[in-house]
Design goal:
Number of strands: 10
Strand content: 15-25%
CATH architecture: 3-Layer(aba) Sandwich
Number of domains: 1
Structural class: alpha/beta
Radius of gyration: 17 Å
CATH class: Alpha Beta
Order of helices and strands: HEEEEHEHEEEHEHEHH
Helix content: 40-55%
Number of helices: 7
Length: 214
């Protein structure tokens, strides 16, 4: 779920302007999963642009305050959401921790890095939601320590049905600054893409795991 339409539109505009999101219907990307995709999102690029970084931080904090109240701790999902998570925690004046995909193989073998007390209220910060699997894996690790996860906030959501189902099943409230529909609407409005590109982008969105460029 996006926070509001105006924020979603503005966020999409900013991400496109610095090429944090690239749309290439004619020259698809290959994701780590092996999926062929006309879109690629790398929100870490936002960290290099101070006004955009500030906009994202301020609006993620706004979501947290309005939807969940001030948490005891902010948790970032490694590695993409560590930096933005720290900025959000700093703005809120609360501690920060981050969650690895799995426990380390050496040392203290931590999956959660930082101090976390039993029963603390946590909001999880993520940069990007695709299927939601890795994000919810972090939530699971936090809950296993006895943490009370109030919800998750993220910069961008591809809006896949499988993600919606996964978050519903895990009973985790997700709110994002922008999403795929808002992005495509903004790209079309500003002539970043054509109607022909729109058709390709919509066909990918329906079956992303099986889509092939024509």
């Amino acid at each position: 779920m996006i926070f509001d339409k105006n924020t979603a539109k503005k966020t999409a505009e900013l991400l496109l302007s610095i090429k944090a999101i690239k749309l290439q219907p004619n020259e698809p990307f290959t994701w780590a999963s092996g999926w062929s995709s006309p879109i690629y999102c790398d929100n870490r690029i936002t960290l290099s642009y101070v006004p955009i970084r500030n906009y994202i931080r301020e609006n993620l904090v706004k979501i947290i305050n309005e939807k969940h109240g001030k948490p005891d701790v902010i948790a970032g999902v490694a590695t993409g959401a560590i930096a933005i998570g720290v900025l959000v925690a700093q703005e809120l004046g609360v501690p920060f921790i981050y969650v690895r995909p799995e426990p380390k193989k050496h040392g203290r073998k931590n999956q959660i890095e930082g101090f976390l007390d039993n029963g603390q209220n946590i909001v999880v910060v993520e940069d990007l939601i695709s299927t939601g699997k890795s994000s919810l894996n972090a939530v699971k690790a936090l809950k296993e320590t006895g943490a009370n996860v109030k919800g998750m906030v993220a910069i961008f959501n591809y809006g896949f049905k499988i993600a919606e189902e996964n978050f519903k099943e895990a009973n985790v409230e997700l709110t994002t600054l922008s999403d795929y529909k808002s992005l495509i609407d903004q790209a079309l409005e500003t002539n970043y893409i054509t109607e022909k590109h729109l058709k390709t982008l919509n066909s990918w969105r329906k079956k992303p795991s099986k889509w092939k460029a024509k």
